[in-house]
Amino acid sequence: MTSDIVDPAAAPEDRPAPEFMTPDQPALPAGLQPVERAHAWVIRCRFAISWAPFMVGALVLDNFVFEDFAWRGALSAAIWFVALSAIIVAPQRIYRRIGYRLDPRSLRIVKGWLFHTDTIVPFVRVQHIDVARGPLEKIFGTASLIVHTAGTHNSVVVLPGLEPDRASEIRETIRAQIKTDWQ
Q1: Model-level pTM?
Q2: N or C: fewer beta carbons within 10 Å in the chain?
């Protein structure tokens, strides 16, 4: 029988490494299902679209405003390096930290790379449910489940990156549960 309790007096090498320090540890807590792999590409495309004006603006500044300076091109190189790094690294990290679990009475959604959010939506609080697909989601074959709950603060909970059929299935499961709660 093993114990999960860690002795604080144990030597540092005897203590288990914290979760954030183990590279082979999964990014999601146990029991959560990851979203579709294609969602990483949706995020990547959104990042590219967001960074495009900065990248073009840096090129314009370097070629027309800073054309007589010795360091011409440095601004473009720096912006392009930061943008490409963000487009390559951040979407994968964001994708790996989105997960969900559908229980008989609630939906749990965990998101966040820099800002971690763990939301549990009891079905009795659900007002209505939408399945949404934008242009990028249609291209990559994903959908978002949007759950509207009673209340004002955080009353809209979004689960992105689901397969469209799975999003519809979850919507119908929640709808059926709501229907039985009202009867």
Answers
A1: 0.78
A2: N
